[in-house]
């Protein structure tokens, strides 16, 4: 059975993610008590269910500490993937302010122990840290709901086996993605933005690609990044990781970083010797994916 655990910080988009799983045909359960997870899987096995998505978060309090060991037991017979939704504190505060919701950890049994919103968020981060370190993490700080649904859809195409390598482009002006394991700064490269004909285009468009591929520094940067990943990828695999996020950033996340992510991803997808390692590759373009697609 494919078991997907959806967890993360309150206000980061777990409900949106769970609906994306439901739309994809998964059996979905929200806010399940930790102690009932194994019983749920046994029941679904009897019903011949093959795919399930379960949302469990810090609303379950200290019992969340039992979850890593439960998941380890489930991995003996099932494929288990953890999807961790995250966002920076300023974004979370703004979202709670806009919705006027209370954070689930902002009050305890005794009124005198009530916490501020930021204190509740910090406590939640501490409770969930053991899960975050072994999860596929998505930073939704600058990600609208439609982009999150799209990223979840891409994730569902990837089997939860071996190491999944995510290549993500981003713009430094909106901050570094919090899920990044390796970050490359390519702002030193010539910027197509200053060409008025290339400015409205992206690194996916042919004129921009032709512009960048003729620049020796761009070619050299591409080769150096590939060489670095080639050298250290076996070490990340040996470390037993499930996910590795390689983020490449330029100023706006529109031209140079997009071009290099696509080029580098294409390189590794073409390496036949990596297939035996059960590696999979995902591409993300944070700033481009945040722009809604208008259907005419």
TrEMBL record:
Residues 164-272 form the RapZ C-terminal domain. GTP binds at residues 57-60. It comes from the Bacteria. InterPro entries: P-loop_NTPase (IPR027417), RapZ-like (IPR005337), RapZ-like_N (IPR053930), RapZ_C (IPR053931). Residues 1-156 form the RapZ-like N-terminal domain. It holds the Pfam family RapZ-like_N. ATP binds at residues 8-15. The keyword GTP-binding applies. Keywords: ATP-binding, GTP-binding, Nucleotide-binding. GO terms for molecular function: ATP binding; GTP binding. This is RNase adaptor protein RapZ.
